[in-house]
Amino acid sequence: MNSWEPKIIAFLCNWCSYGAADLAGVSRLQYPVNIRVIRVPCSGRINPKFILAAFRHGADGVWVSGCHPGDCHYIEGNYYARRKFAVVKSLLEHTGLEPGRLHFSWISSAEASKFAETAREVVEAVRAVGPARHFIKTKPMWDDIEAPLKAACQAEVG
Amino acid sequence: MHAYTEKIREAAQRLLADKKVDGVIGFRQGTIPMMSEPVFIRHADQVHQLTWNGFCGVNLANYLVKRKDRVAVVAKGCDSRNIVLQLQENQIRRDQLYILGAPCHGMVDRRKVWAFLKGRDPLQATEDGDSLRVSGRDFEEVVDRQAFLQDNCRICTHRNPVIYDELLGDPVPEQAGVDRYEDVRRVEAMGSEERWRYFEDLIASCIRCYACRNACPMCYCPTCFVDESRPQWVGKTLDPTDTRTFHLLRAIHMAGRCTDCGACERACPMGIAVRQFTKKLEKDIKELYGYEAGVVPEGRPPLDTYRPDDPQDFIK
Fold first, then answer.
1. What is the C-alpha separation between A67 and A72, in angstroms, rounded?
2. Identity of the residue in B194, B225, B277 whose CB atom sits nearest the CB atom of A49
3. From the CA of A58, how many Å to the nearest CA of chain B?
4. CA-based, 20 to 30 A from B22: which of A20, B10, B283, B296?
5. Element (DSSP H or E) covering residue B9
6. What is the pLDDT of residues B205-249, one digit of tens each?
7. What is the pLDDT at residue A55?
8. CB contacts, 8 Å: B252 with chain A
9. Strand pairing of B37-41 and B50-51?
10. pLDDT in tens, B241-269
11. How far is CA B280 from CA B159, B186, B284, in A?
12. Is the peptide bond before B311 cis (omega within 30 degrees of 0)?
């Protein structure tokens, strides 16, 4: 278990948070390597489907980041996103997703240090919750089903 | 015969004769007791089929989406709220509709009656004020109607239609002192893991027939997310993860739009309390944005608008 590292999908808005990630890299800021970045045109582009899909594909955490309210490249995309995020987060946590798996932030393209700081926070929060156990699709355990049957047949045949 | 029945027939007769509408959407007696079924009346000689009773739980707003003709529709409180939402969402125009508002006393949950009868087969069910008389081959039971209402009707606070062209009876008093979110709070009080299991058990019997989706008057996407295959957002198996994904996404689509009409639960062949998902959203939307779906015809739905000072404590 010691070798487990959280796997986190980060949806970053093209105009702010993605720029912040870029700047953090150019500025040689250190932050954990556990995040996989997906660039989206705007935080308003995030559909709850994306968040669920990330979890279903094995993400331990999801982090969505966009421009500060008022700074959206599309003027108001993140205002709509904010309402959507509030209900999605609330519903997912209400139905049993551990708090600490789903994160949201506003990071402007100049806030490289906030990006690195938030990345650390997110990774630590997800690490604290541990490996994802929910939302993982279970495959039928054929061996578990077959083995007793085979043994029974064998016993009957003698 | 219920007093509304006469009124509905009279109105249908008049509207069809005056050519004000092309059809009337109402209820007729179903083929088995306690199941009134929707009916489309297009000619005056069919008007006698129309009826009204406490088993008209189906939400007729479901038949209005993207209609091209002019129709009259019988609408209870919840149905009328769905009509308001459909008008807001441009699924139908107001001038296409003639709404026969039915102040509602709550609809009887047939499953509760069946459970009460413990396997005895009801052949006839009639109502008289607050009592419900169910009779079969060798039994007759008279029970208090209030105890057999649908769960959503028990906590309903909008029994009177919010928009209508004519009312079928005097407005009924709204229920006072109902606690709409008692069950949601009970789940909220649980721990994370316990909540996960609660919902796991809740949807364990789901057969993914999508009846909840089909019965919902607010579900009208040309391609539903469950039918999308590239990318496929929801797996098609009965795996608990796929089932949960379906229920979560279905609920999220209802955020700020659900009027708690109970159509989904009514339609569910497995008796799953699917309203547990939507009620949480309803509560959140009410607490965060002070909005109740379909109550005021003006304005925009809560997720289609914003305020600069919306709460954002959860965002870093």
1. 6
2. B225
3. 12
4. B296
5. helix B3-17
6. 999 999 999 999 999 999 999 999 888 999 888 889 999 999 999
7. 93
8. 48, 87-88, 91
9. unpaired
10. 999 999 999 999 999 999 999 999 999 99
11. 21, 11, 6
12. no
Alpha carbon distances (Å) from A112 to A16, A43, B249: 10, 18, 34
Instruction: Check pLDDT > 90 for residue B164.
Output: yes
In A18-78, beta strands by DSSP E: 35-40, 61-66
CB-nearest to A48 from B252, B289, B310 is: B252
With 60 as the cut, is the pLDDT of residue A1 above it? no
Average of pLDDT values for A87-111? 95
Q: Are B252 and A99 an interchain contact pair (Cβ–Cβ within 8 Å)?
A: no
Helices B240-253 and B275-289 sit at what angle, rounded to 10 degrees? 40
Please choose, from the candidates B15, B19, B27, the residue with its C-alpha nearest in 3D space to the C-alpha of residue B72: B15
What is the complex's ipTM, to 2 decimals?
Answer: 0.90
Distance in angstroms (rounded) separating the CA atoms of residues B313 and A82? 11
Tens of pLDDT, residues B103-156: 999 999 999 999 999 989 999 999 888 899 999 998 999 999 999 999 999 999
Residue B191: closest C-alpha in chain A = A96
In chain B, the N- to C-terminal Cα span, in Å, equals 61
The pLDDT tens digits of the residues spanning A30-49 come to 999 999 999 999 999 999 99
Measured CA to CA, the distance from residue B82 to residue B166 in angstroms comes to 17
Q: Would you say B246 and B234 are in contact if contact means Cβ atoms under 8 Å apart?
A: yes
- Of A131, A119, A129, A157, the closest CA to residue A58 belongs to A131
The residues, any chain, with a CB within 8 Å of residue A1's CB and separated by 6 or more, are: none
- Tell me chain A's radius of gyration from C-alpha atoms: 20
Q: State both tokens at B37.
A: 């079924």
A96–B198: do the CB atoms touch at under 8 Å? Answer: yes
- Which letter, b or e, does each residue of A56-76 get, where b requires 16 or more Cβ atoms within 10 Å of its Cβ? beebbbbbbbbbebeebeeee
